[in-house]
């Protein structure tokens, strides 16, 4: 989320009519004024000055609100895939600053999002369902064989609370285990979908 800091030079409000200017540098918006008359004997009625300042502050808040808007990524039916692919995808997501809404199944490599994206940028709905299992490769006979090194790497990516939950259920095995409901909402904040949610990823 982008936080826009705004500063306002109120010293001009008590003086003569002025030209108000704004200058934006990075995430800072500075509003100041330049007096149009050197003659300070010309006094503007305080009521008009306060109305002007109030209107200006309202405009600044509106401007700051535009800068604070951010996108939302919704995960609803992701059954996973190659670990490397998801690591790359979630690194980009982490850098984007977007919020993640888990609103359905997020299984296998999809769950890497829990370790890749900051905890405070992930929320879950009542539909959220996280599925965990051991990493695997195809063996010589074409059957799935557990990849111990990849499984350890996958396990290490998860936050402490999730690792503890997995460990209490026997660790990551070929059998899928699901984290949902109250146990999940005990770890992640609840969220509600809105019009800003993008397509499922």
Explain what you see:
With 201 residues, the protein is an alpha/beta fold. It has 2 domains: 64 residues, no CATH class; 119 residues, 2-enoyl-CoA Hydratase, Chain A, domain 1. The protein contains 6 helices and 11 strands. Strands 4, 5, 6, 7, 10 and 11 form a 6-stranded mixed beta sheet that branches. Strand 2 and strand 3 form a beta hairpin. The longest helix has 23 residues. The N terminus and C terminus are likely disordered.
Highlighted features:
201 residues; alpha/beta; 2-enoyl-CoA Hydratase, Chain A, domain 1; three-stranded mixed sheet
Give average pLDDT, whole number.
73
Structural classification: alpha/beta
- General form: globular
CATH architecture designation of the largest domain: Alpha-Beta Complex
Provide the CATH superfamily of the largest domain.
Answer: 2-enoyl-CoA Hydratase, Chain A, domain 1
- Note the run of SSEs as H and E: EEEHEHEHEEEEHHEHE
How many domain regions? 2
Q: Note the gap between the termini.
A: 20 Å
The main β sheet shows up as:
6 strands, mixed
Low-confidence spans:
1-69, 195-201
Percent of residues in β-strands: 25-35%
Q: What is the C-level CATH assignment of the largest domain?
A: Alpha Beta
